[in-house]
User: Which sequence fits this backbone?
């Protein structure tokens, strides 16, 4: 199964973090190393680009409008018109930057970090509540990447890319996951971003693997989307019925990138996604 189309033709250095903003009917995505937040409205074809002052790992919609952003030095908030920036949590660490992030069912932001040199143990996954309270969930990771929840919210799926695994954890009543264990092992490239669909299956973008894999809740590979680009980075369901799978891609580090590297691809009718909550702050 392939059937991809080009949603946004671009040359992002490190396109990442696609997120469907249901309220606005648009896709939000970032170019981490380009320090840009992009939006795309598939109904009108309209696009916007907002520059950030730091490398931006992820941008998610806020419940009251605006964006929460995972930046190099911490987590910040933008107002509805893209202005009125303020820090929610600032914790600069030399040599470290933000990476992927996700909004939990309770509206908290789960923000990942990594070192620029990808040194083992240099990254974290932290939970940030709307009032700025931070709790470290996982320490000692290398490249904190895909994070997502099962449809019932009782399982957390997580990727630390160099492990070449998709892990699963049990979510306790306090919302904190325990019992980390492998769901699937990856041999085709490295697992990067992920999306969970309405059937509880996990879609994983494969950096240096040129594909997206879907794994069942039991960890079986049951679908492969082959792509023309070498470095797909993340995926998310979007569109009015959450049936279209949007895939961000990167061109960084490639001597002769494919012409579509850095673009956003889409596979119409790939499956059925889950509505994603907005950040509650």
Assistant:
């Amino acid at each position: 199964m392939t059937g991809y189309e080009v949603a946004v033709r671009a040359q992002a250095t490190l396109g990442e973090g696609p997120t469907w903003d249901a309220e606005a009917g648009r896709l939000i995505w970032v170019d981490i190393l380009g320090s840009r937040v992009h939006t795309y409205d598939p109904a009108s074809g309209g696009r916007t680009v907002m520059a950030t002052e730091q490398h931006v790992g992820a941008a998610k919609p806020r419940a009251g409008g605006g964006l929460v952003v995972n930046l190099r030095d911490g987590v910040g908030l933008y107002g509805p018109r893209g202005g009125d920036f303020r820090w929610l949590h600032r914790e600069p660490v030399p040599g470290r930057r933000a990476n992927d992030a996700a909004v939990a069912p309770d509206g908290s932001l789960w923000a990942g970090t990594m070192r620029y040199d990808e040194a083992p143990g240099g990254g974290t996954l932290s939970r940030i509540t709307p009032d700025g309270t931070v709790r470290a969930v996982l320490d000692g990771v290398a490249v904190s990447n895909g994070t997502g929840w099962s449809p019932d919210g009782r399982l957390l799926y997580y990727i630390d890319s160099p492990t070449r695994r998709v892990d699963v954890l049990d979510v306790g009543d306090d919302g904190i996951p325990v019992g980390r264990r492998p769901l699937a092992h990856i041999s085709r490239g490295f697992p990067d971003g992920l999306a969970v669909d309405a059937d509880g299956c996990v879609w994983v973008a494969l950096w240096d693997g040129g594909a997206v894999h879907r794994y069942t809740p039991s960890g079986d590979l049951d679908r492969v989307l082959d792509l023309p680009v070498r470095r797909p980075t993340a995926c998310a369901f979007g569109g009015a019925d959450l049936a279209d799978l949007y895939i961000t891609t990167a061109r960084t580090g490639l001597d002769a990138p494919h012409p579509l590297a850095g673009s956003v691809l889409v596979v119409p009718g790939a499956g059925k996604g889950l509505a994603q909550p907005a950040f509650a702050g």
Observations:
- The CA atoms of residues 164 and 186 lie 5 Å apart.
